Amino acid sequence: MRYYFVMIRPNPVGRRARPRMRTGAAAVVCAACLAQGAWAAETPRVVGWIERIMIGPPGIVLEAKLDTGADTSSLHVSNLRWVSDGAGDRVAFDVSGEDGRTVRLVRRVERVAHVKSATGGAQRRPVIVLGVCLDTTYREVEVNLTDRTGFRQSFLVGRNFLARHFSVDASRQHTVEPDCEVPQQ
Question: Could you tell me if 92 and 109 lie in one domain?
Fold first, then answer.
């Protein structure tokens, strides 16, 4: 079987451009990849700008704003305390779910982020790795911890979770429910 591709030569003055057929290794590789679907990208799932997510473990359900303008996800926490011991820097904090349940979590600090706030100032925020479930997609991503008391949604889902998996439709809300197998700690 031969694969062909068409190459248009530059048009010399006074002459009509003629298509020219070429065969070659590049054409064979390109056609083989397309035939096997190697270049076919998975279509991102369309979700609304406000969705319910689950963080886990422990499986707390929260309302979240999906923000394609934010690099990193952000979680509202209370009673944030730094814990330094032989295991490195960790933080202990409380997270409250939609059902009113509050859970105390302790996580290792991956780094400290310098984040520009909406009011124009800058904050230093601890960044942890946390499991997040949206629809049927569970991923462990970096999440910075902050006080989001003045905001309606306690979790902001950033591009570090959304990229290549979800497209956000700003005209829609609550289109999916979290339905993931959350690994145990």
Answer: yes
